[in-house]
Amino acid sequence: MLIVNIKQLVGxxxxxxxxxxxxxxxxxxLDDAFLRIIDDKIVEYGEMKDLSEKGWDNEEQIDVAGQYVxxxxxxxxSHLVYAGSRETEFVDKIKGMSxxxxxxxxGGILNSARLLNNxxxxxxxxxxxxxxxxxxxLGTGAIEIKSGYGLTVxxxxxxxxxxxxxxxESDVLIKSTFLGAHTYPSVFKDNHQAYIQxxxxxxxxVIAEExxxxxxxxxxxxxxxxxxxxxxxxxxxxxxxxxxxxxxxQLHVSGGVQIGVKYKAISVDHLxxxxxxxxxxxxxxxxxxxxxxxxxxxxxxxxxxxxQMLDANLPLAIATDYNPGSSPSGNMPLLVALSxxxxxxxxxxxxxxxxINGAFAMELQxxxxxxSRGKKANLILTKPMPSLAYLPYSFGSTLIxxxxxxxxxx
Length: 410
Hints:
Layout: E1 2-10, E2 29-38, E3 41-47, E4 61-63, E5 68-71, E6 73-75, H1 87-94, H2 99-104, H3 109-117, H4 121-137, E7 140-146, H5 153-169, E8 173-181, H6 192-210, E9 215-220, H7 227-239, E10 243-244, E11 246-248, H8 256-262, E12 267-270, H9 276-283, E13 288-291, H10 293-299, H11 306-311, E14 316-318, H12 332-343, H13 347-353, H14 356-360, E15 379-382, H15 390-393, E16 400-405, E17 408-409
Parallel strand pairs: 1-4, 1-5, 6-7, 7-8, 8-9, 9-10, 9-11, 11-12, 12-13, 13-14
Antiparallel strand pairs: 1-2, 2-3, 5-15, 15-16, 16-17
């Protein structure tokens, strides 16, 4: 298949490198380009003026004059598997109730856990499948999905088995993260160590045996899991072959960034509450800073200081945090716009953060995240636009024309 007369082919990379600081503003492209795809792979690209020399006249050609082609989005932080919505809490927040107060009253994560434990595995799969199909049509070609709404042995394993079924049946590339340490179930609110032992003794051995997760995550935050508790859980996860990721510094300066760096986490995510000490710590590591601006938007919190982090030469990824409580949206185009509008990232920086760096945050950088020979043909075809900046600028418009996942149009 040849896609021809591409106005601009965006995100071309001969080498796959994690982008940091100033390099994130560089988004290589070709004007008036073609792209050749065989089966599920990108095999060649170039300028239209050179196409006639290639001898591919008999191949199927799709003319996309005036349109842009980008790599599909790589959403490296989501909670897409859940049982029910929480719009009543949304109204409570409008009326002034805080996130922490809602959680203390049995809402928040505990509310989602109650719903999930009363939902069958098949129904949970069907709900998640609908959400996955929705985000795929918005251009998401790879996504990380966390557990964490079970908070019981049966509930957490059920979530992870749903994620595994999604991995097998969807053409979207999916990474699985065990987040049993999302909060403490009510029955363990005064006995944290007993729940931690349940994670270590009853959940992790089954997860390892059935190979249900790639990563282990902990919500390291005041009122949730302390630094010491986080370390205990991460160390256990590592013993069972899971690589660390971390919810860090969302509500407070919690020490989560430092713990993430100490344990060589693939990423530390959220970072709404971050200062010089955390930024300096990240500078000395290979850990990716993953920002979730739609959560800050929905909760009316301060946004992460993206410009300060870029000035410090950090690698940034952005992800949706798609979940029922604090970010009920998997809309990556809206997230790119929000990153430009509120985080003051340039369109190039935001696109790099949501494609190649997002791929790195899921360890999928060798097969997706850029327009590169040999990588999966995961592509976004926009509607005709005057410029690339128009994509985040016109944030309320539907500008995606078609999406290709592994060489097939969605």
